[in-house]
């Protein structure tokens, strides 16, 4: 009765009706009248229903207005985002479904409470979160809450791949991959124009060469033309071919034949003296090759009214030959391209050169720089190793070294080389594997695909040579 009296009193008050003291008994009789009581109870019931409807609509509006932020996705990359009703304080949602996930390659799993999949398209994707809350009539339609999922494009797709000008007098292939026998081994080498160059339709600056020489020697050369030099592509090409030409000259052939005698002396009587003779041989012969390339570049620059700086290029090369006692490896390097030899069971790495980084100037050096040949460090640019056997001789430009090794300090770490080989074997984000086997008919295609690996911020030319 008190609730009835309260409801009617409030109703009268809203209609500016007050019950004076001398009408209270009449008011009590009014409230107890059977017909009036029926009307009042109906009024209370309607009021309760109205309040319930308002609370329901208010709750739906509250959910509709509460923001849902899903983590950004990227086209082609596996995506996973938690969507748990409890995290949004929505325990009263009794049914829901997503509309629009499937069309972009995603699904929702109610067991794991995860939105997952591999997005297939980019953009601000408009999804619908369709839901019902407790106390909604069963026949009611789902409420529709718009949710935006940002799917970023695959970064690779943002890069253009414009062909370089084939009519340019110094044009060369944008991408080149080769596999061939070399000595008693095989060589697999690839040189690819970097995305930064492909995006502008400019040229590949890296280059390479390899050649079987007389007297059982084999040669591998890699050069990285400086991107800031307008004809570095020509400089790297000339440097590689110049080294090959030098060691094919008769004087070089005869000189290399002397190495056999020096090595035999060293094997029979290992001493500081024989070691010094070998080091001097490497210094004289490889040094002459490097200097001849420098002079050829100097001549070309003068003929073409260029500066030597216009032809700037790094240069590394390695000669190797098999003897009864093992393999002799001779090397030279200027710039930031490493040469590494891994032993047979891949438990040790021998670095055949140091890089022109860090204390050596904070930046790379080029074969075009005259000061290279005048520096007291010139003699340290040569390497000589006599190894019983090896599994891989690996040479690379900084387009490979930077993303895969990051810093020079990682190069002596055999674990990093083991990881690098595992990467080649398919342990990478793209799952692309290169089977380093002479019987692999797809070896060139596999390496060419592997060379396109994605590494944020590393879009330079890439050259990788592997002797195995």
Automatic annotation (TrEMBL):
Domain of life of the native organism: Bacteria
Protein name: Protein phosphatase 2C domain-containing protein
Chain ranges of the PPM-type phosphatase domain: 186-467
Residue ranges of coiled coil: none
UniProt-listed InterPro entries: PPM-type-like_dom_sf, PPM-type_phosphatase-like_dom
Protein source organism: Adhaeribacter radiodurans
SUPFAM superfamilies recorded: PP2C-like
Annotated TM spans: none
């Amino acid at each position: 009765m008190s609730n009835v009296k309260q409801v009617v009193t409030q109703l009268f008050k809203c209609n500016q009706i007050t019950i004076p003291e001398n009408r209270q008994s009449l008011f009590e009789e009014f409230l107890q009248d059977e017909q009036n009581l029926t009307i009042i109870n109906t009024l209370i019931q309607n009021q309760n229903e109205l309040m319930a409807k308002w609370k329901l609509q208010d709750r739906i509006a509250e959910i509709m207005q509460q923001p849902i932020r899903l983590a950004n996705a990227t086209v082609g990359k596996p995506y996973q985002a938690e969507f748990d009703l409890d995290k949004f304080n929505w325990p009263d949602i009794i049914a829901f479904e997503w509309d629009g996930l499937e069309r972009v390659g995603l699904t929702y799993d109610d067991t794991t409470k995860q939105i997952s999949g591999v997005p297939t398209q980019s953009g601000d994707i408009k999804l619908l979160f369709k839901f019902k809350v407790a106390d909604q009539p069963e026949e009611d339609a789902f409420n529709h809450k718009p949710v935006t999922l940002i799917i970023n494009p695959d970064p690779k797709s943002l890069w253009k791949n414009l062909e370089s000008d084939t009519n340019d007098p110094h044009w060369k292939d944008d991408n080149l991959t080769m596999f061939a026998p070399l000595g008693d081994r095989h060589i697999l080498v690839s040189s690819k124009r970097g995305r930064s160059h492909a995006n502008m339709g400019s040229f590949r600056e890296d280059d390479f060469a390899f050649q079987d020489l007389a007297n059982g020697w084999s040669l591998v050369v890699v050069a990285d033309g400086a991107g800031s030099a307008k004809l570095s592509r020509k400089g790297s090409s000339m440097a590689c071919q110049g080294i090959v030409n030098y060691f094919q000259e008769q004087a070089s052939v005869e000189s290399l034949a002397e190495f056999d005698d020096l090595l035999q002396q060293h094997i029979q009587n290992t001493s500081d003296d024989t070691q010094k003779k070998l080091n001097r041989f490497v210094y004289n012969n490889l040094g002459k090759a490097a200097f001849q390339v420098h002079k050829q570049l100097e001549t070309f620059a003068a003929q073409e009214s260029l500066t030597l700086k216009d032809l700037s290029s790094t240069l590394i090369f390695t000669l190797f030959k098999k003897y009864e006692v093992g393999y002799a490896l001779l090397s030279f390097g200027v710039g930031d391209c490493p040469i590494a030899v891994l032993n047979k069971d891949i438990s040790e790495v021998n670095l055949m050169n140091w890089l022109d980084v860090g204390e050596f100037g904070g930046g790379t050096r080029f074969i075009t720089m005259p000061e290279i040949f005048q520096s007291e460090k010139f003699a340290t640019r040569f390497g000589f190793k006599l190894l019983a056997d090896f599994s891989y001789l690996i040479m690379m430009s900084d387009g490979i070294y930077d993303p895969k090794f990051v810093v020079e300090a990682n190069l002596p770490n055999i674990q990093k080389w083991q990881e690098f080989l595992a990467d080649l074997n398919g342990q990478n984000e793209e799952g692309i594997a290169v089977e380093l086997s002479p019987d692999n008919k797809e070896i060139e295609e596999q390496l060419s695909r592997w060379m396109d690996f994605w590494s944020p911020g590393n879009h330079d030319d890439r050259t990788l040579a592997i002797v195995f």
